[in-house]
Specification:
Blueprint: H1 2-53, E1 68-70, E2 73-81, E3 86-95, E4 98-109, E5 118-126, E6 131-135, H2 142-145, E7 162-164, E8 167-170, E9 175-176, E10 180-181, E11 188-190, E12 195-196, E13 223-225, E14 229-231, E15 234-243, E16 248-252, E17 255-264, E18 269-273, E19 279-283, E20 287-289, E21 294-297, E22 305-309, E23 326-328, E24 333-347, E25 352-364, E26 369-373, H3 375-379, E27 386-395
Parallel strand pairs: 5-7, 5-8, 5-25, 6-9, 6-26, 7-10, 8-11, 9-12, 13-15, 14-16, 15-17, 16-18, 17-19, 17-20, 18-21, 19-22, 20-23, 21-24, 22-24, 24-25, 25-26
Antiparallel strand pairs: 1-2, 2-3, 3-4, 4-27
Length: 399
């Protein structure tokens, strides 16, 4: 009987041990399931926050005191502005005794075509020693912000993105402080020691160029600027507008200038007075900047000068037309935006662009410099921005 009692006690102990093991395993399995569910709930919260932000809301969803209930679980999301463009979303999910916390950082991408320092719809190519960076005209001059690097590699900010719906190519020693985004199914080719500090991942969709709507004004014939001249605020329509060598044409904004041909001869200048508004140019055929010519406002803010080129300098063998002339010769400079959807633009050595240039195709020669003005992003945006993901990570859950 004693032996039987000991055997029963041993069996009972084994049964209790197995029961404890089963209970522990069941508890562990339940905890694992609750943790997975909490993680899924976090992701649902982040999706809801993004959905709201895409509709112009803050991105905050529920609170710790008043969480959102979803299928027996709970979650809330807190949105925090990191910068004017970057928002941090922190989601917490709870399922039973399990919990999870996740962080998602997103950047607002304004709806505007002025997102690139340089963009070639068909292709973009940079010769050796060409440079692209960015600055922000609302923070002061480019020179005051160009405090990084040294010598020919001195730069200001690192959002000097370039792009194309086709391929992008960089020759030796070309430098882009920003992204180089080729079109869908296209590529960015970098030779030798050329460098791109940002992404080279191709775009998921093409950039659409809007149509240029040219206003109609009373024709004024030809006009040649033979001495320093000022145009008053208003609308003008010239056949040929020529600024002679070493002469300055000052235009008081707001103004619209329509002309068939616009030429700035060597060392001439077009100066915009933007006190009351910007100046917009519409050039139908030829656009020529001869050596050392400059187009800028008195504030040197690119938002003050808008140049639309309808020029078509691409030979089409099926159509017998006169080819337009589009020239940016050596040592010229433009502070503004240039939109040339039908032109293949070649920028000669030492050309300086402050703002943004979009063309049918773009060939940037040696020592040319592009300085994208980040102020264009928000100033020209319309509608609610889209958001791109910068980073995601799991955080330690704090019960």
């Amino acid at each position: 009987m004693v032996l039987m009692l000991l055997a029963v006690l041993a069996l009972a102990a084994m049964t209790a041990g197995l029961l404890c093991m089963n209970l522990g395993s069941s508890k562990e399995e339940r905890g694992s399931k609750e943790g997975i569910h909490a993680s899924y709930v976090c992701q649902a919260g982040l999706s809801q926050a993004m959905y709201q932000m895409q509709r112009g809301l803050s991105g905050n969803v529920g609170t710790h005191a008043a969480p959102v209930t979803w299928a027996g679980s709970q979650y809330w999301v807190q949105a925090t502005a990191v910068t004017a463009e970057v928002t941090r979303l922190v989601a917490t999910g709870i399922d039973g005794r399990g919990g999870a916390t996740q962080e998602l950082d997103v950047r607002a991408v304004p709806h505007t075509i002025w997102q690139y320092g340089a963009f070639g719809r068909e292709w973009l190519h940079m010769d050796s020693n060409a440079r692209v960076d960015s600055y922000n005209s609302t923070l002061g001059t480019y020179a005051a912000q160009a405090v990084n690097g040294g010598g020919s590699n001195r730069y200001a900010l690192s959002n000097g993105d370039i792009g194309s719906n086709g391929d992008i190519g960089l020759d030796q020693n070309a430098q882009v402080w920003g992204d180089a985004i080729a079109g869908p199914s296209h590529a960015t080719t970098v030779l030798g020691n050329a460098q791109i500090t940002g992404s080279t991942t191709p775009a998921s969709q093409q950039v659409d160029f809007p149509a240029i709507n040219v206003p109609s004004y009373t024709p004024l014939g030809n006009r040649t600027i033979t001495s320093n001249t000022t145009f008053a605020t208003g609308n003008y329509n010239f056949t040929n507008l020529t600024i002679n060598a070493s002469k300055t044409l000052t235009i008081n904004g707001p103004a619209n200038i329509v002309c068939s041909n616009l030429e700035l001869k060597s060392n001439s200048a077009v100066t915009i007075n933007p006190t009351n508004g910007p100046v917009t140019f519409y050039v139908i055929d030829n656009f020529i900047l001869n050596q050392n010519a400059i187009v800028a406002s008195t504030t040197y803010a690119p938002l003050d000068v808008r140049i639309n080129l309808l020029s078509d300098n691409v030979i089409n063998p099926e159509v017998n037309v006169q080819i337009d002339q589009v020239d940016f010769l050596s040592n010229t400079a433009v502070y503004g935006t240039i939109f040339a959807p039908n032109a293949r633009v070649t920028l000669n050595s030492n050309f300086q662009m402050y703002g943004s240039l979009l063309a049918r195709s773009l060939d940037i020669h040696s020592n040319a410099r592009f300085h994208f003005d980040e102020a264009l992003l928000n100033a020209t945006a319309n509608g609610i921005p889209t958001y791109e993901t910068l980073c995601w990570r799991e955080l330690k859950y704090q019960p």
